[in-house]
Amino acid sequence: MAQLVVMYKTPADPAAFDAHYFQTHVPIAKGIPGLKQYDVSTGPVTGPGGPSDVHLIATLHFDSLADIQAAFASAEGQAASADMANFAQAGAEMFILETRTV
């Protein structure tokens, strides 16, 4: 299994971020070829020491790293990437990783 994890920083207007993210961005991203599962955090994102500067974490699941690369190359992947400029002005970090059950 491979995952794309996106950590979105807290925006100036969380309500506007959420509206765009769930009404526009999620439908675009859910059309990405090879996407098996799409999870998002609910409620505040905190660390052991308390609040963090992260507003939302999205985890997109794929079968392999090659599938993630193909997803980014697809029209839907390009549209999702381009859409980030419309709502993620506070910034986002992306991580691509393989996972295994231990």
Which properties best describe this structure?
alpha+beta; 33% helix; Alpha-Beta Plaits; two-stranded antiparallel ribbon
Describe this structure in words.
With 102 residues, the chain is of the alpha+beta class. The protein has one domain: Alpha-Beta Plaits (2-Layer Sandwich). 33% of the residues lie in helices and 31% in strands. It is built from three helices and six strands. It has helices at residues 14-29, 65-73, 75-83, and strands at residues 2-9, 37-40, 46-47, 50-51, 54-62, 92-98. It has a four-stranded antiparallel beta sheet. The chain has a two-stranded antiparallel ribbon with strand order 3-4. Strand 3 and strand 4 form a beta hairpin. Helix 1 (14-29) packs antiparallel against helix 3 and helix 2 crosses helix 3 (75-83). The mean pLDDT is 96.
From the N-terminal CA to the C-terminal CA, the straight-line distance is: 13 Å
What is the CATH fold-level name?
A: Alpha-Beta Plaits
Range of helix content: 25-40%
Level-2 CATH architecture? 2-Layer Sandwich
Rg is 14 Å
Shape: globular
Largest sheet: 4 strands, antiparallel
Which percent range describes the beta-strand content?
Answer: 25-35%
User: Average pLDDT, to the nearest integer?
Assistant: 96
